[in-house]
Structure formats: structure tokens, C-alpha cells
Amino acid sequence: MKNKKERPLNCFFVYQAGRLQCLNGAYLSKIDSVLFSLIIESKIPPKDKEVSIENVLVNEKLREVVQRRGQEKFSLKVKENYNWHCCFPGCDINDKNFLVGAHIDRWADNVEKRGNISNGLCLCCIHDRAFELGYFSIDDEYKVILNKGKDINNSLLFQKSVKPFKNQMIKLGNILPDIESLQAHRLRNGIFGGY
């Protein structure tokens, strides 16, 4: 009796000339419905039905980036200034994992105030995002003003988390928010008096 060699584990299969064939060292670049069915040992589907396997092209790219130096320390000092609480009225979030030391006048817009603690607010993730998107701002008396120019009234999140606090004062820290930075935020977001 002839000794048969065991097939190596790195086999690839193709459906060719009406039958399943094994190729050692071949690369599987495309799979059609017939081959797919043979590999998983099910019935061969009709030729008009293709098995669709969807993939999104993903890869990595090496690039140089400018890193914000001092950002972590700024954020920490801003959160400390507000005693680790979201300063938005009615918000009780004090979980460190959900607080942001946010710039009022953005990093890119005002080089001189980047590290100035008075240019920061301690906000929870929701209120930080709403502030950054310009859904609300803060007036010179530290009261919440809403952006009447934004199409936000259909947002349930806005209706429940921002709008009810219109004209209410934020919780202040030891270092007060910079009035010029607040004015710049309102100007950037087109908030002229709010509603």
C-alpha cells in the first residue's frame, strides 16, 4: 500500500473546471458563490446568486502632527478651578471621566490665551460639545444664552439639556471666565443676544 502524504494546513481552494481543487501556496484574492459554498460544505447556490462579502478599506498612514504642549495641564487646572464639576447650570456631573477642560476662545484662534485658565470652562461631554458647536454661549454676566441662528430646536438633547437653562448663571470657579474670550465665542458662533 502506498503511503499518502498528509496535506499541509496552508492549503487554498479554487473551483476550476467544474470541481474543487487544492493549491498549495496559492493566495485567495476573490471568492465567488460556488467556491464559498464548497468551502463551507453546503449546497452550491445557483449561478445567478453571488455571495456578497462587504469590506471597507482600512489602513494606516504615518504622518507628522503638531502636538499641543501643555494642553493636559491646562485642562487639569480648569477642572480644579471648577472643583471637578460641570459649570453648566443644573448639571451635576462630577465624574472625572466625563469632564472636559474646554477652551472658550479656541486654541487655534487665540495664541495668547491658550494656557490662560480664565479662558477655560469645566464642562461635561454633552455641554462641551453643545458649547463647541455654538448651541449656547455665555453672556458678560455669566448667564446661558441660546443661539437662535442654529437649527437645533428639533434636538431632544438640546430641548432637555440646554434650553431649560436659558438665562441661568453658570457655576463659577475661583478664576472667572474671561469676558473677551466669551465675546469671541459669541461672535464666532453668531450669537448676538441669543433668544
Question: Low-confidence parts, pLDDT < 50 over ≥5 residues?
Answer: none
| Global morphology | elongated
Order of helices and strands: EEHHEEHEEHH
From the helix content, strand content and strand pairing, which structural class follows? Answer: alpha+beta
Question: Can you give a write-up of this model?
Answer:
By secondary structure, the protein is of the alpha+beta class. Helix content is 22%, strand content 14%. The chain has helices at residues 33-39, 71-81, 125-132, 156-161, 179-188; strands at 11-16, 19-24, 99-103, 120-124, 136-138, 144-146. Strand 1 and strand 2 form a beta hairpin. The longest helix has 11 residues, at 71-81. The N and C termini lie far apart (93 Å).
Which helices and strands, and how do they pair?
Blueprint: E1 11-16, E2 19-24, H1 33-39, H2 71-81, E3 99-103, E4 120-124, H3 125-132, E5 136-138, E6 144-146, H4 156-161, H5 179-188
Antiparallel strand pairs: 1-2, 3-4, 5-6
Could you name the key traits of this structure?
alpha+beta; two-stranded antiparallel ribbon; 5 helices; 14% strand
